[in-house]
Amino acid sequence: MQVGLRLRQTLRVLGAVGLTVTGGTIGFRETLHESWFQAFYRAVVTVTLAGLDTVPASNGARVVSMVLVVCGLTIIAYAGAVIVESIAGGVFTGVLAERRRERTIERLRDHFIICGYGRMGTQIAKEFEGSGVQTVVIDTNPEAVMRLRSERRAFVEGDAASEDVLRAAGIERARGLISAVDSDERAVYIVLAARALNPNLYILSRAGMPDSIRRLELAGAQKVISPYRMAGHQLVQLALRPNLVNVMESLLQGGLGVLEVTVAESSSVLGRSLTEAGLLKPGGAQLLALRRRTGELYVNPDVNLRLEPEDILIVLGSEQQLQATALVLE
Fold first, then answer.
1. Whole-model pTM above 0.70?
2. Which of 44, 117, 250, 257 is the most exposed place for a label (fewest CB within 10 A)?
């Protein structure tokens, strides 16, 4: 829209100059009976306010000169206004857009920070958007920043390993951080900086090389994913157990979801068994696993297992079933 407006304004200026010079040339030709070239030269000099070589010999030519001077002043004033508006408009628009992004990020709570907006970071942002989860992206690549602006995403331009940049992304209020940068070395620095700023932050990182997984875990990442290893595992599963994979995908695409729910320390079901808590009722969500805060994992847990604070339950069900389970554990 702005490009079209600027084009129309430029065409107006050029059209006004052309008409004025043409009219001046004809006027001087008729009043002074000069050659066409001399009349054209006199019109150009007059319109551009460069001055006249000689004072016109007739009153008619003087009138033409005055009209051309007024037209020249008007054209120059309009062109100057367009130029100033273009420069100032771009600056002010950029400042206002930047301030709006800052205010949006300042209001965010319990969001995820995505470091790197390449192919993986872009897909992660889309998945979060589809799940209704708010995100802030950090990247320095000019092409990525341009895409972020065009997509109107909340982002911070800078190095994700910088504490100032992480603070600008609201790391103290964030729920988690995902490092999707291409460099494992940069990922280590990002994880170290993020963990120092928010000890309770959930950090997930991509690792390009298998040797980097241990380094990222030592830096503070709770989970490190190797895309190549995951892709290889998925391909093998599709080759060996195609029906199982298809069934799982159909379940997830058919309105069912998997939810991770934490038992609150003030929950009314603390100390009760899974049966007593009503988590195994027919028609409810299916309880797949339970993990203690000490790290013990119970897959298909015993019905008499008693709930403890900060137990994490993995449940499968519809949106309504998952919401009902979450309410029970609050």
1. no
2. 250
